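ok so i was messing around last nite and threw this chain in just to see what happens. nothing serious, just curious
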Amino acid sequence: MSIKLTKQRQEILEVIQASEGHMTADQIHSTLKDGGVSIGIATIYRNLNVLFSEKLINRVRHPELGFIYDKNLHDHYHFRCRECNRIDDVEIDYRDDLHALVEKELGCLVIEHDMTFEGICKECLKKRTNKN
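result:
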């Protein structure tokens, strides 16, 4: 690791690693504050950027919330529910072969890709069924 894991970075990392899913910077800030840790939101953002650049956490672009942060470091896809807005990891094989297809089509160099499936999660589908 090329960075110093400061107390603040360690606390942020521990919150993300203890989470059940993805968290926004505001959720991380609230969790730390509720735990008695005094840290500013700007400090949270700076440290999240460092942790991401050092590949200690993953960052996912959310269409409404900006970036959300994830402890799941391997290449994977996501599913976003359009009703409850939750994002879940999709544990299907990551398609490295898509890089070659896009490179051939566009004559470019693909370094990475991300993909988010959108729809309605099973909990929201169940709520819809129960309303009818």
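not much to say yet. Residues 41-53 form the longest helix (13 residues).
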